[in-house]
Amino acid sequence: MSSSSDVAVEGVEGPLAEFAALRVEIQERVKAQQQMLSFQLTFTGAVFGFAITRPGMTALLLIVPFGSYLLCARLVAQHFGTLRVAMYIKDELSGRVPGGLGWERWLESRQRRRPHFMGSTLPLLFTFAGASVLALGWTTGYVFGRHGVQTLARFGLGAFWVLGVAAALSCVVFVLQMNNRLPVRSWAQTGLS
Fold it and tell me: pLDDT of 133-151, one tens digit each?
């Protein structure tokens, strides 16, 4: 015959196992963010190094804004995915465990303010948008001022350059939203709903 405490413990095993699995998911998402940040630094350094040391390869820098945009978007999506998992743990799962889980509530109580601009927001802006702006600035003369470029080629490079500006601006928006400096109206806006 089982006691009432055995029944209570059995009812908690499922939510605790789910909590453990969700914590692993959060850790994987954070690890993915660090990998994307490292890849951004490596990618940007490699492209700049290659384009600057080889004559006539300046146009290669135009891929930096697009690569930066893609990596920044994935990093921010992982961030918002982590927030969604944490919200689920706090709002749904914690109530199914006697006494609650408390981890996300404890984290939330310590992180009510926005991340520090100099320590969190600015480095990400430099890493993604800054690299894009530097690449666009470096290629401006090549795209718009170089003599002997056919009209169609100049138009194509110009369009690519303008799209690069849009990609860089998107990185700025993503980083500011991630760091609570621009509002996110809904989860649908993060692409995670």
Answer: 999 999 999 999 888 888 8
